[in-house]
């Protein structure tokens, strides 16, 4: 049995986040002591570890909920797990492409600046052509 503090420490999760996950149904409510303290079992630790790993990989909370629903049905076909993961991967790849375009544009405008004063700065000019007016 673990206290909420021990669970937080073991998973690198804030206590407030654990409480929120309980309120949202992501983590099942733990048993309580006579003093009304939460006590967590190894299953809570495993589930929270799963949630943390999903979040570290950038899965949204809705995606995590979907994956947890599937975890709770271990005899189901894993096709839906594959689908959720493939959709998430496609979103990550779109973000990477967007960031690459952003980096290319920043390199392009940065290369235009030979130095000098802000009034002559080609970066400022590229960001806001009418700013120097």
Q: What is the share of helical residues?
A: 55-70%
The major pleated sheet works out as: 2 strands, antiparallel
- The coarse overall form would be elongated
Termini gap: 68 Å
How many beta-strand elements?
Answer: 2
Kindly report the average pLDDT value: 92
Beta-strand portion reads under 5%
Which sequence of SSEs, written as H and E, runs from N to C?
HHEEHHHH
Domain unit count = 2
Residue ranges: pLDDT <50 for 5 or more in a row?
A: none
**Total helical elements:** 6
CATH class of the largest domain: Mainly Alpha
Strand order in the sheet with the most strands: 1-2
The CATH architecture term of the largest domain is Orthogonal Bundle
- What is the fold-level CATH name, i.e. the topology of the largest domain? Multidrug-efflux Transporter Regulator, Chain: A, Domain 2
Structure classification: mainly alpha
The rounded Rg comes to: 24 Å
Short description:
Strand 1 and strand 2 form a beta hairpin. This protein is elongated.
């Amino acid at each position: 049995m673990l206290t909420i503090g021990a669970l937080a420490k073991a998973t690198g999760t804030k206590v407030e986040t654990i409480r929120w996950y309980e309120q949202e149904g992501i983590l099942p409510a733990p048993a309580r002591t006579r003093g009304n303290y939460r006590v967590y079992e190894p299953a809570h630790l495993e589930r929270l570890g799963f949630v943390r790993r999903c979040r570290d990989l950038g899965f949204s909370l809705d995606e995590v909920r979907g994956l947890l629903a599937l975890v709770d049905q271990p005899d189901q076909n894993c096709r839906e797990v594959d689908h959720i993961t493939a959709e998430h991967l496609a979103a990550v790849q779109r973000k990477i492409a967007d960031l690459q375009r952003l980096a290319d544009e920043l390199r392009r405008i940065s290369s235009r600046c030979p130095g000098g004063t802000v009034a002559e700065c080609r970066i400022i000019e590229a960001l806001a052509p009418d700013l120097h007016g």
